[in-house]
Prior knowledge:
Blueprint: E1 3-6, E2 34-35, E3 38-39, H1 70-81, E4 88-93, H2 100-113, E5 118-122, H3 155-168, E6 174-179, H4 186-197, E7 203-209, H5 216-223, E8 228-231, H6 239-245, H7 251-261, H8 265-275, H9 295-300, H10 304-316, H11 322-329, H12 333-345, E9 349-351, E10 359-361, H13 364-371, H14 376-392, H15 397-406, H16 415-426, H17 431-444, H18 448-464, H19 468-480, H20 485-501, H21 505-522, H22 524-540, H23 546-556, H24 563-580, H25 587-598, H26 602-607, H27 609-621, H28 625-640, H29 648-661, H30 665-682, H31 685-703, H32 726-741, H33 749-756, H34 769-782, H35 786-803, H36 806-822, H37 826-843, H38 846-862, H39 866-883, H40 886-904, H41 919-929, H42 934-941, H43 945-959, H44 964-973
Parallel strand pairs: 1-8, 4-7, 4-8, 5-6, 6-7
Antiparallel strand pairs: 2-3, 9-10
Helix pairs in contact: 1-2, 3-4, 4-5, 7-8, 10-11, 10-12, 10-13, 10-14, 14-15, 15-16, 16-17, 17-18, 18-19, 18-20, 19-20, 20-21, 20-22, 21-22, 22-23, 22-24, 23-24, 24-25, 24-27, 25-27, 27-28, 27-29, 28-29, 29-30, 29-31, 30-31, 31-32, 32-33, 33-34, 34-35, 34-36, 35-36, 36-37, 36-38, 37-38, 38-39, ...
Amino acid sequence: MTDGRQVTEWSQVGTGPVRRPATAALTVGKVPCVRQGKAETGRGNEDLTSPPRISPEHASVGTRQIVGRHAHLDRLRAALDEPGPRGTLLELPGEPASGKTRLLAAFREEAKAREVPVWTASGALHGARPGGGRPRAGAAPPVRHPAGAPDGRGGAGADLRAAFAAATGPGGTGLLLLDDLHAADRRSAQTLAALLRDPVPGLVVAAAYRPRQCPPWVRSALEGGATASWRLPVGPLSRADAALMAPGHPAASVDRAHALSQGLPGYAAALLREAEGAPAPDFQEEPVPLQVPGLDAELAALGEDERQVLDIAAVLGEPVDPGLLVAVAARSPAHCAHVVDRLAALDLLRPYPDPPHAWGFRHPLVRAACYHRVLPGQRWLLHTRAAAVLRRRAAPLTEIAEHVARGDCGSDPHAAADLAAAAHDVLPTRPDRAARWLRTALRLTRDPAGRAGITLALAEAEMASGRPWVSRTLLTDMCAAQGDQHQLTLARLAHSRAELMMGRPREGYVPLRRELPRAERVGGALGVRVAAEAAVCAVLDGNRDAVRHLELASRLLPSAPAAAFDTRLAVIEAFTAAYVGGIPAVGGRLASAAAVIDERSDDECAADLGTLTLLAWAETMLERDGEALRHFARGLRVTDRGGPRALTPYLLAGQAHAAARQGRVEAALAAAAEARGAARRMGNAPLAEFADVTHAASVARRDGSTAATPTPVAGAGGSPPDAGSWFAAMTARTAVRLRWERGDPAVTTELLLRACGGAELPRVEACGAAYWAGVLMDLALARGDTVQAAGWARTAEERAEQSGLDGQRGHALASRARLEAHRERPTTAAALAAGAAERFAALGFLHDEASARLVRARALGDLREWREAEVEMAQVRVIAQATGSRALLGVVVTEQRRVGACAGRQSAPASPGHLGLTRREWDIARRVAAGASNAEVAATLYVSVKTVESHLTRIFRKLGMTSRNGLAAALTVA
């Protein structure tokens, strides 16, 4: 077969293929009539020709709505528009559940819209008759073959060809749709081969099949024809197309469905239907019931031996060790090998890439569905057998534990201890699995001391799995009981972390404060942990007692502390200093701690993800955004690989905060939206509100303050904002600022002061106090109170020096520049704004740099230093384009027009006279060099675009330039 081209654009199906009996030869018939959303197949299957719920803009003209697959549809249209004299073959190979049946349905709809005759078949070509569309007059009657008709002579193909030719007519076009061609028997393949060797002019044959199950006789038929051939693989969906399948589903559900389905739309649709109910556990941790499209028919065709081996493989999990399968099946290796080969030929099992000689299912969701088709008693028995075989082999506990937990573990005296030990090993990377094993171990344990230890481990696993409310319930009961003091302290530490995960730092602080006196008396490693964790809770609660707790931790720290202790304490010190103060003293220790953490493996980071998260937050608070973004990304990578998920909202919220300050607006919006969803699922309302307001602030930076959708945060209507915790305080302050920028008249200096805790800004973190003092200054200037504004400008300068952070110094300079500009002191304002812009540029704070440059440009305009003003505005345009900020671009264009209009009323400067340009040419050249387009220059100077173009031609000729970049360089030298 000769391919005309390769098409690799992926596409979408709807809810999966119609299930059909797994017979060797099926007959061709008319297109099923669709009534009330069901196809009349007699099996109650879903109608797969109905359109998916997608936006109209993604619909194909002339077909029912279908996501993607536009390259396939375009190829079909081309074949129908220009029917070849030798016909056309469109091959549609694809994996099971890739959407081949749905694509054929779209082909049929396209043909029906064109009134082209359509024939449909599944697996065979016997008894063909035209159907669908509007056949031409004189259509041939059905072709019937007598019983026992000889094979291999092409007689059936010739009769079928005659029927198609008669129905199509001279110069006409027809469409033959062949689904599940891999199921065709030899006779059907010979019939198809005859049809393709002597094709019907104008007949388009679209054949869909599974390449792995395609027998040699079908491949030979496809490759031996004289028809023009096109091979159009039907591959997986992109993430964007998966989202179009289910509008209204949460992004997290779509991400999960796309990842678990590996992009195959039939599986993705099944997962999205399942996601409409209660949240399900990860399929990598525990197989859950799922209706996999078409699988029932495949399993129904299996023999007893094949079904038994497939059941054992599903219970053993992937990869399937052949030796273990033979031992559990209690059959000979030769017998099992023969059955496995048959299952591989049916593409239910496939060779596993690693280790060699192992087997796996063709898709993880197929394994999950097969597992739940095993009868419960048989499942229990197979797990018990597998556990016994693995124990005899002295396999690692992590390999045995799953079978122990699901088999006959009640009679095993070592089951509880083995499950607890295995859970401890997998907790950092597979917390869901650890929690499941620990729940079984807890059920088997009767000893009170043993139950306490398992309960504590279970609480940690539930927390790491993203269920802190379950941990809190377990730990509340444990803390209320009297027991071993050491375990009680560990329980209170874990209880505190669970409260933090739910956004309740004050409730988390309470149990640690009870432990602090005992920690000071007992000391040791546990005492250091209590004091350090109390400092973290205090910061998140907005309590400055964190310094006192850190001092206690430092006193209790051994003279030669373990490296992990020292590293975590250094990170907590930096995190605390960012809130309380003393930032200059912690920079060196933070850098050293970051170097140590960078040397850790991902598994080591998973075991101590809290330290990595605190490190990233400390770095972004101390204006080290590049390092912070790298560590946030690493933490998210660890959680994506199966690590603890409880800290995911904190990682995403920090990523959004740092990305927004660096001008990565789209990344900030995406991270904020994910953080909001993750925090809500975790029950962390304060963090969800923080993500909401961060998202709104990013939208305001990109599209303008009026574009940001107001969020229901505390402080609405002029009431005092709730600033109970640090995140709540940040949310309240940002919400007030956004409302002020939107022009809300209810926003006053007093309202923002209440969000800051008062005139001394006690609820504002030390690393941001200078910035918020600058915002208070702007509010004072807005109401004309210059005296109060000057006081806030001084406060900004003082707080900036105390912090020792260049970004805060930049904010103090920018605040003073705005004040001086308001006082009509442009020379001072321009110098201060230049200093602020320089500091922001060095840190990568793009939006802050642009704001400072705009202040400087306006001041230079007031000084009639037009050229320097336009240089600043050109830089702002570059920033606006780099960040995608339409709002900033609009501001700078307006400012350029204002400055340009003022400059146009002045006499031309004497310095550029030697360039030989007229005054008008000089005005145009300066604006073009500053980055303005021809249309913008024309609008500024009130001339036509053609006038600007003719002036530019003369300017280029006079200066010997050929480009705008060259013009900018020439004017810079001048």
